[in-house]
Design goal:
single chain, about 350 residues, alpha/beta, Aspartate Aminotransferase, domain 1, Aspartate Aminotransferase, domain 2, four-stranded antiparallel beta sheet, 14 helices, 13 strands, about 20% strand, binds pyridoxal-5'-phosphate
């Protein structure tokens, strides 16, 4: 059974494993203050062309989101998110557990617009309601769609006008950046956002995410806030070493390119077989609509999620490719589809 369920089914890219192994017996400072973590930070700052940012390593996405968002807000302040936002649907109320309401906006493509944000701000006019203070975007979204430079710029503008913090969840940032439709870079994302994270877990790392904080007042005491939430790892080196490797010789981009290329092959094959998509994506998540009869045949050889039922005969399925997806498996999937 070959899995297209997610992009964390495999372990870790060999270069990273090798780097972990090479450094294994070297004694280092704890809590991410070792030399290799510092080298990773330098490489990331170079990528952003910004030496002023603060950089922190985390073990996972939920932990990053809840530590960042929970720390950036005062008690009465709230988050604006698309209804499909990971923090709203799939993080077990972690943000709410930090005391902050997440205001959901219903969006078919999983993307917020500047108009949506303005409307939420307008609706929350006085102290009898929570005060919207932070905009949560994921790029790519949970539906595999991405933001353009123009869209992000207009969201930045509304954040400036309304005094909102702009935060981006980049669990699959590599896939967004390597999409054929993308016109953003880490440099421009850093220019628009007050804080954002770049995901390693879903792009070849064993585990780990890196949070970048640009806005000065959000940086204050952040390591204390991490520690209080159990996010400051004694063996922080484990994440630093991995990001150093990811940002050496373009590994981060090359791995995401592979995932996207495998998704492109699947997309073309599915279209050639006459099937439609619930929504168009250019990243490593695909949402084709398939007859149940064909889904049952595919499920004998491949695992994937049945995402959403359309009617008694059809369902949307979710296919995800990864940095390690095997091209032969993609071809087999398409052949099986074409023969049915
Ligand atoms: C957009 C997004 N953010 C955050 C996460 C959470 O990551 P974790 O499972 O590491 O907490 C995920 C996981 O799928 C995700 O897709």
């Amino acid at each position: 059974m070959y899995s297209f369920k997610n992009d964390y089914s495999e372990g870790v890219h060999p270069n990273i494993l090798e780097a972990l192994s090479r450094s294994n017996m070297i004694q280092m400072e704890g809590y991410g203050e070792d030399g290799l973590s510092n080298e990773a930070k330098t490489l990331i700052k170079k990528e952003l062309k910004d030496n002023s940012v603060d950089i922190h390593f985390f073990s996972g996405g939920t932990q990053t989101n809840l530590t960042a968002i929970g720390s950036f807000l005062r008690p009465h302040e709230a988050v604006i998110s698309a209804e499909t936002g990971h923090i709203l649907v799939h993080e077990t109320g972690a943000i709410e557990a930090t005391g902050h309401k997440v205001i959901g906006v219903d969006k078919k493509l999983g993307k917020l617009s500047s108009e949506d944000i303005e409307a939420v701000v307008k609706l929350h006019g006085d102290e009898h309601m929570v005060k919207p203070k932070l905009v949560y975007l994921s790029n790519p979204t949970e539906l595999g769609t991405i933001y353009s430079d123009e869209e992000l710029k207009s969201i930045r503008d509304v954040c400036d006008r309304s005094g909102l913090i702009l935060y981006m969840d980049g669990a699959r940032m590599g896939s967004a950046l390597m999409s054929s439709e993308n016109d953003l870079t880490l440099e421009s994302i850093n220019r628009y956002c007050d804080a954002f994270y770049i995901g390693g877990t879903k792009n070849g790392a064993l585990l780990g995410e890196v949070l970048i904080i640009k806005k000065e007042n959000l940086k204050t005491d952040f390591r204390y806030l991490m520690k209080q939430r159990g996010a400051l790892l004694a063996k922080g080196r484990l994440i630093g070493i991995q990001f150093k490797e990811l940002f050496t010789d373009n590994l981060f981009y090359n791995l995401a390119s592979h995932a996207n290329r495998m998704a492109d092959l699947l997309r073309e094959g599915i279209k050639d077989s006459g099937h439609e998509f619930d929504l168009e994506t250019s990243t490593n998540q695909l949402f084709p609509i398939m007859p149940i009869q064909i889904i049952e045949v595919l499920e004998k050889k491949f695992s994937f999620y049945r995402w959403q039922s359309i009617d008694a005969d059809r369902s949307v399925i979710r296919l995800v490719t990864s940095w390690a997806t095997n091209e032969e498996a993609v071809k087999e999937f398409i052949e099986l589809l074409k023969s049915n």
